Amino acid sequence: MNPEVSGGRDEVLLRVRGLKVHFPITRGIVLQRTVGHVQAVDGVDLDVRRGQTMGLVGESGSGKSTLGRGILRLGVPLTAGTVEYDGVDIASLRGEQLRRQRSAMQMVFQDPMASLNPRQSVENLITEPMRAHGKPVDTTTVARLLELVGLPRSAALRYPHEFSGGQRQRLGIARAIGLEPALVIADEPVSALDVSVQAQVLNLLEELQQRLGLTYLVIAHDLAVVRHVSDDVAVMYLGGIVEQAGSDDLYRSPLHPYTRALMSAVPVPDPEVEDRRQRILLRGDIPSPAAPPTGCRFHTRCPYRQQTRCDDERPVLRELRPGHRVACHFAEEIDSGAIQPAEAAQMVGTAPASP
User: Fold this and answer.
1) What's the angle, vertex CA 353, arms to CA 334 and CA 312, rounded to 5?
2) Does 290 or 278 have the greater pLDDT score?
3) What is the mean pLDDT of residues 118-123?
């Protein structure tokens, strides 16, 4: 997914710096007091290039969806940081200024049935956001949008429950592109669909990107999906980005221990390679964002943990190779083999992973 678009493919359309989303934890019925915070997103830096697709991966509970909603200011209050869209800091906008800016940024939700009003016809669902933003609407506009997503014109008079899951997701995509946005955030766009339908929806997103020059931020937990659609990939763990690189570079040579563990779980369609390759088994579950570990947030599960720094100092996201950034104190040593995993029991197999 790397079409040539006006403005240059290396131009940054979305720049996120130091973004934090902390939800207060309160106690008391009448006199509520704040006793802590859930640090859902805690200091995220992210660049999304114009006309490209950024994949965002990580375990459930890592803060991916909250980050996506925070970027769009969609029901998520920002605690700190900046979100620059085409040079404009969205985090500082309020009221009518924010509403006008939102037409250029749209979202495709994970569950199309939950995001589509069952009492409205397809025509009303697609045209409602367009009317809200003062854009001209007629039957020709609706028919064109339906054709763009591979649905017949007759679908305009039907209701969401009359469609399959894949068709409902196409309706959600049609509603998103109706405002002619430059940026579309897709939150798990195919995870609720059958495998046979997932490829069709992904191919549709790619076709629309090439035709309309869209920029995508695709949130997913399926590494195979992310590899298929993304130009760049960011890996998120417990509210922070731990690694970011070009898709081919990241899958060929991951540097962060967490990314290595994720990649080692990707099945290889070769039985002999699958039997030989090394897997990294992480102990325990992801910690609670209400009480994250000190230092590196991955150190409680990391097989390469070094107590000298990992327990006390949080690593910054730094560039180790051109375009490849990683938040790990000992990424160079781990990559070179100078530091070995602390417990061999956590490693299964004998050959290095090759996803």
Assistant:
1) 30
2) 290
3) 94
C-alpha 86/C-alpha 96 separation (Å) is: 18
Average pLDDT, the chain: 88
Domain segments of the chain as ranges: 250-348
* 83 Cβ contact partners less than 8 Å away, ≥ 6 residues apart: 14, 15, 16, 19, 70, 71, 73, 89, 90, 91
Helix (H, G, I), strand (E, B) or coil at 256: coil
Q: What is the mean pLDDT of residues 7-29?
A: 87
State how far the Cα of 94 lies from the Cα of 144, in Å rounded to an integer: 33
Residue 345 pLDDT greater than 70, yes or no: no
Q: At what angle are helices 122-132 and 139-148 packed, to 10 degrees?
A: 110
Amino acid, single-letter form, for residue 258 = Y
pLDDT digits (tens, 9 = 90+) for 182-209: 999 999 998 888 888 999 999 999 999 9
Between CA 254 and CA 347 the distance in angstroms is 16
Facing residues of 54 across strands?
Answer: 217, 232
State which amino acid sits at residue 241.
Answer: I
Q: How much is the pLDDT for 38?
A: 95
* Sequence-distant (≥ 6) Cβ neighbours of residue 273 within 8 angstroms: 351, 354
* pTM confidence score: 0.89
Helices (H) and strands (E) in the chain, counts: 12, 14
Q: 3-state SS of the chain: helix, strand, coil percent to 5?
A: 35, 25, 40
355 vs 236, 252, 266, 267, 269, CA distance in Å? 19, 8, 6, 7, 9
Q: What single DSSP character describes residue 277?
A: B
Of residues 63, 95, 52, the one with CA closest to residue 246: 52
Rounded to whole angstroms, how far apart are CA atoms 294 and 287? 11
Q: Which residues pair with 47 in a beta bridge?
A: 15
Out of 7-21, 95-109, 160-174, least confident range: 7-21
Q: Tell me if residue 309 falls in helix, strand or coil.
A: coil
Average pLDDT over residues 57-71: 93
Using the 8-state DSSP alphabet, how is residue 328 labeled? -
